[in-house]
Amino acid sequence: RMTAAVAQPASALHLPRNRDGPDTRLLNRASRLSAVATAVGAIDLKQVAATYQQEAGCSGLEAATVAAAAVGAALK
Predict the structure, then answer these.
(1) Which of 11, 12, 21, 43 is most buried as measured by Cβ atoms within 10 A of its Cβ?
(2) Cα separation of 3 and 26, whole Å?
(3) Is 26 among the domain residues?
(4) Is residue 33 situated within a structural domain?
């Protein structure tokens, strides 16, 4: 005959979160992500590419690639 065992949480990781108040950790993360999105949105890729093209004397495609790489590096 089999008996069902009542599962006990092994650690605090298995306990449900208290959802009564705001989750400050998630709010802080959302705030940081919003700040990054604002900063990236403010970057003028055309201007970055044009400046690089003028200073390096390279093609427009190479300048656009460098500008895109700069934005990618800023996001990391």
Answers:
(1) 43
(2) 41
(3) no
(4) no
Distance in angstroms (rounded) separating the CA atoms of residues 19 and 25: 13
Tally of domains within the chain: 1
C-alpha 56/C-alpha 70 separation (Å) is 15
Contact, 64 vs 49, CB < 8 A? yes
Please indicate, yes or no, if residue 29 is contained in any of the structural domains.
Answer: no
pLDDT at 4: 55
User: Is the predicted pLDDT of residue 52 greater than 60, yes or no?
Assistant: yes
CA–CA gap between residue 38 and residue 75 (Å, rounded): 12
Higher per-residue pLDDT: 10 or 41: 41
What residues make up the domain containing 71? 44-76
